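This section describes the prediction task in plain terms. A model, or a person checking by hand, is given the sequence of a single protein chain and must write out its three-dimensional structure as a string of tokens. No templates, partner chains or ligands are provided. The sample shown here is typical of the held-out split.
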Amino acid sequence: MRIFDPHIHMTSRTTDDYQRMADAGVRAVVEPAFWLGQPRTNPGSFTDYFDSIIGWEPFRASQFGIRHHATIALNPKEANDPRCRPVLDLLPRYLAKDGVVAVGEIGYDSMTPAEDEVFAAQLALALDHDLPAMVHTPHRDKARGTQRSLDVIKESGIAPERVVLDHLNEVTVAAAREAGVWTGFSIYPDTKMSPERMVAILREFGPERVLVNSAADWGKSDPLLTLHTGEALLKAGFDEDFVDRVLWRNPVEFYGQSGRLDLSDVADAGPTFAGNSILRGGS
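The expected answer:
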């Protein structure tokens, strides 16, 4: 089983996790910029963080045979802190980097006016830089937050197939599918989605425009829950091709839209986006 985890925060994981992931078949990951738990007090903190996830972390991953890409953004939670607002001015420099395959995570935390402004501004940056967007749906009031996110996405003019709406569940998946965006599901202990629930969703809705991730971070999480979801799908009677589509070909297709997805040194990488081999810088 080959696995591409399209949303995992490896800066908060250990090298032992990288080894376990490699042993489990994880060959590629995307790390979205996110809140670190401790509030950041100035834009310089973000500069160091962004440099780390596009520089040090890809090197660390490569030691275990894993390709690492990133998404860059001012996250929704810190969008409410005026000390962080100047980060928006830093983003264009990072969104031009080869290893950056989307703008994200963006979206809502508490659905404040400040979050409205920052969300819209970063969707505009995605359009300006011809990048896909990863949108975080809020953990509270998820149904209303999902619909509000879809409204903002529609207003922005970005093509729905270039957006993944993440952290969805049984209540929100139908609206996202109807809107034509990619549907993201975080297999995360206790708070988001389990492998068994993911099997039921895939049985009902199919594998089209579905991304399954672990969202593993500094919380109670498990970077092998993508593997466990694949195992649960096989146990439920889905074939290996179905599992490969969900856990590998779908994230390759979504992030391949950036023109920057580089899987050139991944063993058995197989086809990339639209039958083309997409190397660094879109060459």
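For orientation: Residues 269-283 have pLDDT under 50 and may be disordered.
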